[in-house]
Amino acid sequence: MVAALSCTQLLLLLRAEPPLPSSAANTTNITQDAQLRWPSCEGQEEMLNLGFTIGSFVLSATTLPLGIFMDRFGPRPTRLVGSTCFAASCTLMALASRDTQVLSPLIFLALSLNGFGGICLTFSSLTLPNMFGNLRSTVMALMIGSYASSAITFPGIKLIYDAGVSFMVIMFTWSGLACLIFLNCALNWPSEAFPSPEEGSYTKKIKLTGLALDHKVTGDRFYTHVVNVGQRLSQRAPSMEEDDISSQDTRGTSGKPREKSVPFRKSLCSPIFLWSLLTMGITQLRVIFYMAAMNKMLEFIVTGGQKHETVALKQRAEETVGFYSSVFGAMQLLCLLTCPLIGYLMDWRIKDCVDNPTEGMALDDARDGIATKSVRPRYRKIQKLTNAINAFTLTNILLVAFGITCLINNLHLQFVTFVLHTIVRGFYHSACGGLYAAVFPSNHFGTLTGLQSLISAVFALLQQPLFIVMVGRLKGNPFWVNLGLLLFSLLGFLLPSYLFYYRARLQREHTTDWEGPLKALSNSEVTA
């Protein structure tokens, strides 16, 4: 958003040059008209779209090295570097606006630092929701929604600029805010990455703290704490529990070697990740193409094609496109309002789940004194898969509805298209982030998210030839391109289909695990 604002305002400043004398101006105009041949409107639109495509690709491709860096060193160094680059970019923009004729080349360096710093800040924030436990996906969706709707601040900054506040003051203020982000990260962010709630270290810290506070309490509560700590640590990280016991035992027993972490190759080659690459690539191409070609689509609806254009119709088309573009920009605020819905769907009933059958039976023993045989426990992993299936199915349904509205040449219907586009744009990022955080280890999250963003950017490169075909061969008619993208988007249902198959397989395995403890319990009761 800051980059877009800076380009707009600095171009206005660059144009504010002293006029030439009339004779010199006439001579210059004649010389320029003789030497320069401006490209056609279609050529200029293709060049602008190419710049948009390259910029989007570079921004998305940057997330892969950032993800690797963040998984290796944690989010704190990434955030410190990002805030530094962001503050430096705002300072360079302010300096460049002081003397545009001499310092205008600084804009290219400033915009590069601006984009890099912004993606560092955004990417490092995605690990923060791990602190919220069962509300992790909801908080992550809220953060992604705030990022997606950040463009809404552009009209506010423009109003401040039009009110008489200089561009230099705006940029220096923004640089000061970036310095506050740097200070907050240096003082408050931990040096290590935030562990996910499923990891043994996270569970151990929370549960053992509760046990230390309540160790004098007798009855159910004390027993529940003991069972939770013992079972969850023995299932997920038995070596960590043994290390603690050996450190407290004066006799000193040699613990077993630590359990090996999940190799990255296993996460990379998992079917869930591979299917998510296809789904995210398709959705990214659909969303990016509409953002690039929206003005041409609206223009075609007004004019009905290039063959029927008149001067009055062109003027009406320009006014209509300008109005609808402003409405589309204002609707980006919906990302902030709708993204938490998909996050809440990803977190649905997670807190009521257990990790294994023994834990569920122990909880019943602690509460009632008798194991409950008739109630089958709800497993956390299966519930997460169920939530992911619902989230991606809903997102794909909205994506198909969006594609259908794009096929209808009705100007008022485009408001519905804007709403669907904004919702889908926030939903699929939030759903994918929630899926990766729920399924894969936290130390793989950054690299997997960066790789997914890179593959999606490669898919998005296809929108440039599609735009050229629409403007050139199809004479501005977007119907056939939108129809092809609509059919292509149906492949997005393959990911929830695989998740449904994978969930069914896990349910069969957990059914066997649940029947085992019940049989053992019934045998012990008969013996007694």
Please give a structural write-up.
The chain crosses the membrane at residues 48-68, 103-128, 140-161, 167-187, 272-293, 323-346, 388-412, 418-439, 451-473, 479-501. The structure is a single chain. This protein has 528 residues and is mainly alpha-helical. 76% of the residues lie in helices and 0% in strands. The N and C termini lie far apart (72 Å). Mean pLDDT is 75; it is low at 1-35, 202-213, 215-259, 369-374 and 520-528.
Could you outline the blueprint of secondary structure elements for this entry?
Layout: H1 2-15, H2 22-35, H3 41-61, H4 63-73, H5 75-96, H6 100-103, H7 106-125, H8 136-148, H9 153-162, H10 167-188, H11 200-213, H12 220-236, H13 238-248, H14 264-268, H15 271-303, H16 311-330, H17 334-346, H18 357-368, H19 380-407, H20 414-439, H21 442-460, H22 463-471, H23 479-489, H24 494-527
Helix pairs in contact: 1-7, 3-21, 3-22, 4-5, 4-7, 4-21, 5-7, 5-10, 8-17, 8-20, 11-12, 12-13, 12-18, 15-16, 15-20, 15-21, 15-22, 15-23, 15-24, 17-20, 19-20, 19-23, 19-24
